[in-house]
């Protein structure tokens, strides 16, 4: 049994090195897009975003999905995507 544990322990540095080699380019790409996409809104954009969300919610409640313009749906999608990233990658969030 101790020999089996010793073999596994000896393989750990190689596995960690392989994991780092595999993940470094992918993490670099992720951080590149994260810096571009996850820029917080400016103070001037916040009232517009709140108004747009109110319009979207009102149209969904009324069942008027066809009247919601594409950029508004993109905003809703970006909000959901941001929430997903925060939940997955924040220290207090769920890590998958």
Automatic annotation (TrEMBL):
One of its GO terms (biological process) is proton motive force-driven ATP synthesis. It comes from the Eukaryota. InterPro entries: ATP_synth_F0_gsu_mt (IPR006808). Keywords: ATP synthesis, CF(0), Hydrogen ion transport, Ion transport, Membrane, Mitochondrion, Transport. One of its GO terms (cellular component) is mitochondrial membrane. It is found in: Mitochondrion membrane. The keyword Cytoplasm does not apply. GO terms for molecular function: proton transmembrane transporter activity. Belongs to the ATPase g subunit family. This is Uncharacterized protein. It comes from Haplochromis burtoni. The lineage of its organism: Eukaryota, Metazoa, Chordata, Craniata, Vertebrata.
